[in-house]
């Protein structure tokens, strides 16, 4: 039975004089042109690996956009046995370029769509190129992320000796998950943090806030107590984030999240190809109130009344 090799990568893209260009890498060992990608390290999450591999292979710092079609194919292991390799891809925008290229890559080329199509050495890589091209043509390639986070695992109510439940802290596993969320949120370039004032929510985002030097904004409407008295307040916080259009993360509690996710499901772009799948993902997450420490990424086009969700993905601890 072949073993499965997880890998992740990106299709970096940019517009030059209105012309879509994508970045390919050349690997001298194989003499091929392909997308920047590489194996997921043990314990590493897919989006974190995608950004890391892009930086190592291209020297480019990138933020993830919409997910693209996976690629699954067979490779030969060092022992001569066949292994199945699964690569998850994202479209990515470049935010900086300072790192050195990995030794596996000797050239990075920004190419127009037609030239990229001809230069790619593997037919499977053209599926991601087609998805990027079609997304650009339909106006859904340039997006911004809104990430919904359920607080990480906290000390059990039965074990908490304090009188104020809002002060109940994360346990050891919860603190570890909060630290693990730093590179996940960074992969999407999150710049605004909104949270329930409860300690278990605030402390889920606090490590990223410190690492990114961002202010953490507490909102009572996102707390369980606030939700009990004003259930509409959480949805209003979502509307405000959609109005701003800044890459944002919002952290709340299991009882509050179904309302937030149901609101987001109504903002999925009506004529989107694959709309039913995006709505189903949000509705499924609402039904199970998400997993503690989960980050659900919504990719949004536009702002305010025109804001529409065009893709969504779940990252569980």
UniProtKB/TrEMBL annotation:
- Sorted alphabetically, which Gene3D superfamilies does this protein's record hold? Nucleoside Triphosphate Pyrophosphohydrolase, Phosphoglycerate mutase-like
Coiled-coil blocks:
none
Mind telling me which SUPFAM superfamilies this protein's record contains?
Nudix, Phosphoglycerate mutase-like
Q: Which organism is it from?
A: Phycicoccus elongatus Lp2
Signal sequence annotation: none
Extract the Pfam families matched here.
Answer: His_Phos_1 (PF00300), NUDIX (PF00293)
Please state every residue range assigned to the domain named Nudix hydrolase: 3-133
- Please provide the record's keywords in A-Z order: Hydrolase
**What's the protein here called?**
Putative mutator mutT1 protein
